[in-house]
Amino acid sequence: MAAPSERAGLVSEVLHRVNYSETDQMGVVYHARYAVWLDVARTEHLRRGGLSYRELEASGFRLVVGELVIRYRRSARFDDVVRTRCWVRERLSRRVTFGYAVESADGALVATATTAMLVLDAAMRPARLPDAAAALLVPVSDPVRL
After folding, report:
1. Secondary structure of 105-119 as H, E, C letters
2. What domains appear along the chain, each with residue ranges and CATH number?
């Protein structure tokens, strides 16, 4: 049975098949690729929640990475299907923290992560998150241990 936050649609997911160009000489996914997967998952999470980066930028605001923490738990390899789940952990007036779980097809954790996104205005100065955007970013409890 899905956790209450998942049933409510507050935890989104993106599936991705690892391509050869994402692997290193040892045949495992290169560590920096995970940051790209997190970005894709976060962008999709926002879009599915009713807020796109494009709309946010058009309204004069940016969300920029202020902190990124990734905990690698096991290797992903070429042709593996990975699922990246994303949710809002914390929403403050000038910062939004997202949580992530990257899982293999059998549900085993490959990596967990967080990103703290800072809110900036069009001139790249710290700003407050617009009320309409804040209302769409509902924090939930972590569905996995980060």
Report:
1. CCCCEEEEEEEEEEE
2. 13-136 (3.10.129.10)
